Amino acid sequence: MNKLILNGIQARTVIGIHAEEKLTEQGVIISLVLHAEFLKVIQDDDLADGIDYVDVVEFVRNFCHKHRGNTLENLAHKLALSVKKQFNLSKVELTIDKPRYTGKLEMEAIKFHVER
Predict the structure, then answer these.
(1) CATH number of 2-115: 3.40.50.620, 3.30.420.40, 3.30.1120.10, 3.30.1130.10?
(2) For position 1, what pLDDT does the model report?
């Protein structure tokens, strides 16, 4: 089993529990580890036998844009399951970062990690 790692995908979504968060999209940063067998694409060097990371990034951004919710945990769980199914993966690791409140809370990051 091999891994394709996509770090720092910037997306926009409506997420949060505060009234102002429910009104406008805010940025989130998503990193993925996609577990799959890449032997065929390694051997024949044909992307048709692999995973086009451009497609993955577009899928993630579209999913986030359509999502409306309260928690990072819920978004991460649903997105990980959707990516896993869409790209026929054996496992997905997803970390989501919500940087909007880090300055206000005087902290470096607000992240949630899920494995599906």
Answers:
(1) 3.30.1130.10
(2) 81
